[in-house]
Each structure stands twice: as structure tokens, then as C-alpha cells.
From TrEMBL:
Listed InterPro entries: Homeodomain-like_sf, HTH_TetR, Tet_transcr_reg_TetR-rel_C_sf
Any Pfam family: TetR_N
Name assigned to this protein: TetR/AcrR family transcriptional regulator
Alphabetic keyword roster: DNA-binding
Species, as recorded: Parablautia muri
GO MF, any single term: DNA binding
Superkingdom of source: Bacteria
Domain (HTH tetR-type) ranges: 2-40
Amino acid sequence: MVFAHNNYKNASTSKIADAGDISKSLLFHYFKNKKELYLYLWENIDRISNEIELKYYKETSDFFEAMTQKVLARCEFMRTAPDEYLFSLQALFAETPEIREATGKSYKEVYEDAAGKLLESVDLSAFRPGVEVGMLLEEIDSYLFHSLWQMLSTGKLDPDSLERDFLKRVGQWRIAYLK
């Protein structure tokens, strides 16, 4: 996948057409421009992610178990579809403002929906008094963003390391935040 190994600006339509073994004219028959193709691919990454996440989904009221399921699914996505995952990182952290704005808006909508559903489905009474679970969720998301940014910066996905580190942190978070 050309977009996985090149940023948006450096992914020429010639390279894209060659990688797809099609002509540029056929590419532009289906997509009016490179941005439309890019955003189409970005939207379809969500479908792959959801399919993998369903394999890990087990109904639970345990906040940390639910978060662990999501991270294990993300790591599985990295293992089974590394180019697609790398592309999703390229899109999420895009250098081109118009791309970053579009993917960021889409990510924010999905994130807010998922966070709302998570907070509705978990047992908040398990937390110590005064713990703002929404803020904890933001803290965990910030940690994950940092980890993914590091992977993108090096160009190397490391799901095993993310998995190990996340599971250690979950243990610490349980001690710090649960009754």
C-alpha cells in the first residue's frame, strides 16, 4: 500500500495506480482526486478494525478488561494487516492539514461514540471515590497516541511491545484507581 509507506504528499497517483496494477485514468474514473481516494481508504480501515475487534469482544462491566480487549484487538490488527494499520497511523497523524482535519474529525466522532458506549457499559462503582473515569480514559488514550506516534516515527509497528507495556500499565491503573 503506497499510502502506508509514504505520507500523503509523497504518494503519487502514478505509484498508486502502478501498485494497483491499473491505469491512472481508471483510478480517476473511480476517484475524482487523490484526497477522495485517501479518505475512502481511511473510512474503510474502520471496517477492518471493527471485524478484528469483534474477535476480542467479550461482554464485561470491567473498565480495564474492556480497554484491554480494545488494545489486544489493535495489536492483532497490526499483526494481521500491518500495511493497513500503518496507513491508518499515517492518516491519523497526517502532515497535510486538510487530511489531518478530515481524519481527525472522523476519529473524534468514532472516539466520542466509543467512549460514551464504554462509560455506559462499565461498572463505575468499582472506582475509588472522586475518580473521574472520563479523565482516566483520556489519560489512557493519550498514552496510546504517544505509543502509536513512536511507532509511526520509526516506521516499525511493534504490537508485542505495546501489548506487554499496556498490560503492565493496566495492573498499575487497577491499583491506583479501583477500590
